[in-house]
Amino acid sequence: MFSERIALIAGGGALPLEILGRLQGKIAVVYSLNEGLSSGESVPETTEVIKMVSPDLEWLLRDLERRNIRKLLMAGYVPKKLMYMPEALDPALRAVIGKLASRDDHSLLGAIVAAIESHGVEVMPYRDVILDILAPVGVIAGRNPTEEEKDDIAWGVEIIRRLLPLSFGQTIVVKSRSVVAVEAMEGTDRTIERAGTLVKGGVVIKMMRPDQDERYDLPTIGPTTLEAMAKGGLSCLAVEAGRTIILEKEKTFDIAEKSGIAVWGIG
């Protein structure tokens, strides 16, 4: 699958480094939008890192062609607010965004991937590389959910399944069958922080829309997720089994254990 030279577009977060570590010597170049990722201890000597201040689709496609690279991975978080900053985007990317009838995450990422693949570059899935850090079904870390928390999970899942086709609400916070907070552009951790100012003991539920492209857009949780929950006094995290990445598992599980947070995999 990864027998040819491949490139990686690295957004923010720990996922790009996780993938780099698992594909030692197979990634020829990293186009990094991640401030914490640079050549050094975390990146193999055989991998070149090119820092990008902002996405530049036209330059990227030219550089891939120059290097004769026809396979690409995309991983990590890129702030969606960039689409409201046309001065930070190159003409090719502005043109892609300008043609969209809807600028939700699903449409936006799909259009960018389509533009890349129209130039003969295959966007490849990273899922098979990180199977061991995908959430399992049932108890993942910490304690078992209480009966009240399980009831809120079941109720919240029905709510979130109605929101996901609209391309927002990937994370919601529920307390006593009431929706406390819904994720929009701010991201999971900020949604959790906001919910913590409103309730204590709420349940955080995170899922992905059924047709979300698993090649490049799997949801993630990690230490910052659990830290935000512990700080806000939220008691339970439920994520979609097999479709959620758990980053820095040991640290994440340790925070769950020490904070008494139940982490549950939705089957």
Automatic annotation (TrEMBL):
Protein species of origin: Thermovirga lienii (strain ATCC BAA-1197 / DSM 17291 / Cas60314)
Phylogenetic classification of the source organism: Bacteria, Thermotogati, Synergistota, Synergistia, Synergistales
Signal peptide: none
UniProt xrefs under PANTHER family: BLL4848 PROTEIN, LPXI FAMILY PROTEIN
Domain annotation LpxI N-terminal: ranges: 5-132
InterPro entries: LpxI, LpxI_C, LpxI_C_sf, LpxI_N
Pfam families reported for this sequence: LpxI_C, LpxI_N
Official protein name in the record: DUF1009 domain-containing protein
Domain LpxI C-terminal: 137-264
